[in-house]
Amino acid sequence: MDQDVAKKLFLEGATFVFLGVPQETQFGIDMQCWNTDEDFRGIKMIPPGLHYVHYSAVSQSTGDVSPRSGFMHYFRKKEFLVKIWDKNLEDISKDEISDESIQRLKDNLLNLDRHLAPYPYEIWQKWTFLTSQITAELAEKLSPESGIIRASVELLSMSDKERPRGVKLPKSQECDTSKETKEDCSPGKSDVKRVKRITQEEKENSMLPDLKPAPGASMRFTEIPRDKYPTGATPEEITKHYLDQSYTLELIVAKHDEPLHMIGELQFSYLCFLVGQSLDALEHWKNLVILFCSCDEAIHKYRSVYFHFVKTIEVQIEEMPEDFLADIVMNKNLVYKKLREFFRTAFISKVDGRLLTMIERFKDNLTDKLQWDFTGLDTDEEDERPVVVKLK
């Protein structure tokens, strides 16, 4: 580390003290992870800003590693944060630490300092790119109420009252159960009940126990509406909103304090997957990417948001695990298909200026570094072509 930088971090950097952590526990901050030794007491010289502290208990007898847990925290200049390990829970203690205890640690900082590992400054620049739009308020808003982000969320059994029920059909779709012939419930009758066929997947799911996340354990991501169109939309409008999901993007933007917080949520969910190893976060990240890539009008209305979207996803894909990147192309999953759609939309809708330059560079980098094929953007792939349905 440059000596001037080291001096500045020594004077202005934050300190995270973690007491009672067992030897060989997996502990990390941001994208760095270590196994602790018996002298470990925490991290010093942490650059002010948002950081992700994470840990996994390791069995002393078998060496088994528990699912990762952690928390996002916005460290202020010279902040002194103290946490204690609970041996019984094998987790961070929920007990509050008194001001007197914290002050004693501060007074003993000279002796404590040699037990503190310096922040791995070489990852700092990349980390700032990955967290550029996550504010302290947004991180708190999206984190679980408990404050702890877990790769494996504790699940509890649901009571009968909490189990989801079927949707009640309008009277025009109900069927008189006293009538037993097929003709009585055939299409065209005013008292028709449309019976939904149960798929094999639904049949298998019905055999599984009904579970729900423990209170305060789930991440509070912004819900993406299932219906992509406003109430009362005509068939033509429904088709339009599915082809161009700008309406859905507008609904998500309205739930944030400002449009760029959507990029912050994209970054937050990505880090909860990459660092926190949460599959729920990965699913939300994918859904956000798909939504961004499924818009046409919104690209022009929210140019600044899309400018940061391209910057963000470019860095994110560079940090993706190799097996995940291989899966994107080998199986032509939705992320790959939607990126093709995004590039095609950018060219067809005549995005110009700096945004178009960034999009073209992004596409070329994916082709050069990862050999992703984005040729033929002016033609639809076989499974993307519209299906013509003949109406009788």
Automatic annotation (TrEMBL):
Q: Which InterPro entries match?
A: AAR2, AAR2_C, AAR2_C_sf, Aar2_N, AAR2_N_sf
- What keyword terms does UniProt attach to this protein? mRNA processing, mRNA splicing, Spliceosome
Instruction: Give the region (Disordered) as residue ranges.
Output: 161-192
Q: One matching Pfam family, short form?
A: AAR2
Annotated Gene Ontology cellular component terms? spliceosomal complex
Q: Does the keyword Protein biosynthesis apply?
A: no
Domain named AAR2 N-terminal: residues = 12-144
Q: Which domain of life is it from?
A: Eukaryota
Question: Which GO biological-process labels does this protein carry?
Answer: spliceosomal tri-snRNP complex assembly
Give the family per the record: Belongs to the AAR2 family.
Check the record and name the PANTHER family matching this protein.
A1 CISTRON SPLICING FACTOR AAR2-RELATED, PROTEIN AAR2 HOMOLOG
- What is known about what this protein does? Component of the U5 snRNP complex that is required for spliceosome assembly and for pre-mRNA splicing.
* Protein's UniProt name: Protein AAR2 homolog
State the organism of origin.
Answer: Pararge aegeria aegeria
